[in-house]
Fold this sequence. Notes:
The protein is of the alpha/beta class. It folds into two domains: 240 residues, D-Maltodextrin-Binding Protein, domain 2, CATH 3.40.190.10; 174 residues, Periplasmic binding protein-like II (D-Maltodextrin-Binding Protein, domain 2, 3-Layer(aba) Sandwich). Strands 1, 2, 3, 6, 16 and 17 form a six-stranded mixed β-sheet that branches. A five-stranded mixed β-sheet has the order 11-8-12-7-13. Strands 4-5 form a two-stranded antiparallel sheet. Helix 9 crosses helix 17.
Amino acid sequence: MKKKLVAVLMTAAMAVSLAACGNAGTTDNTTDNTTGTTDTQTTSEETPAVPAEEVSENAPSGEVVGDTTVKVWVADAVVDFTKEQITAFQADHPEFAGFDFLVEAVGEGDAAGNMITDVTAGADIYGFAQDQLARLVAAGALEEVAPENIDALSTQNDSGAVAAAKVGNTFYAYPMTSDNGYFLYYDKSVISDPSTLEGIVADCEAAGKSIYMDLTGWYQTAFFFGTGCTMTYDSDDSGNFTAANVDYDSDKGLVALKEMIELASSSAFQPGSSAGDAVNYAAIIDGTWDAATVKAFLGDNYACAKLPTFTGSDGNTYQMSGFGGFKLLGVKPQTDADKLAVCDALALYLTSEDVQLARYNAVGWGPSNLNAQNSDAVKSDEALSALGQQLAFTIPQGQYPGDYWTRAEALAGDVQASFQTASDDDLKAALATFQADLESYAK
Length: 443
């Protein structure tokens, strides 16, 4: 749906106030898939709704017509926080005094599915994981970002979050966090140099300690993407996968696979990424959600870093990569330009620098805003700082067929078993089969 021109309500003064606002972390794909019970807040006196057919395209300034309730879905962990921020938003924007705001607890893992099932009954503003963006756009559940907000989004947020908020060159969402991905936790009394995988493994072997890494679908991309391989899927307007863009069956794919095999062959290697299940380790590749667990285990020797580089079988050095995860805030298409204006203004406000930093202080969500990332509070968070560095080398995770995750898990099993003694020809044949399977998931 093309965005309507905002009428008299969005005056020049409004544009100035919005500009001021703009300056103000297991599953295979996302974390914090929280579902909660409905919790509401009505923050201004109720105004009777006007049927859509009676809505004027040019509502007089200061006069609210049409549907005046803005429904907001956020994760249960930030319901109270969001209510507080909406109260502040209302104080800053008296021109929206005629609108009521209803905040409901619907986590990022459920919001997309609910919106696609029934766009009309869904929220006007909602948080979701970036891997759901394409299917939400295809379902008509996302309005394009207001043109006047695009410059703020594209310049004030990190490049990974900016890419995650777009389909092609079009912005469909407001970046809210950069905090889902994996990086290196390590024991600084054991690991002398966390910058190379070879050095980390050698230090762990010498100390009789373990290095933990999951080699299944989400994590194995650290190697394949690191050597320059591609794996993405195209889908149609109905969400069906129509094409697979995969080049694992290649020289760079072989380098990645052989590095996985080499890591798995170490006496220090242990498969896994859950710090709560790990023992006797000096290194673990994990996410921010396990920071407290790792810190309790390592104590004063706790340290974090981006993923290391490795020297491939071809003699070249590669930076480990992988998927990056981001939380986004979307606006549902509206038939009323006035309501669309308040939705865009609130979405911009809730993803602004000040609110992102306040959200980090309240619940620990990692900001996507560059200034917020450079704040003393966030920079002192070792886990978030390491993840922020790593996200510069990742790609935003899109949609993948469910069969991919199962097939990638099988590949990880082979890496730890039969591939340990396989020839290069055998490995090339395995990659050809793997790629053919991945391509077959796009009908």
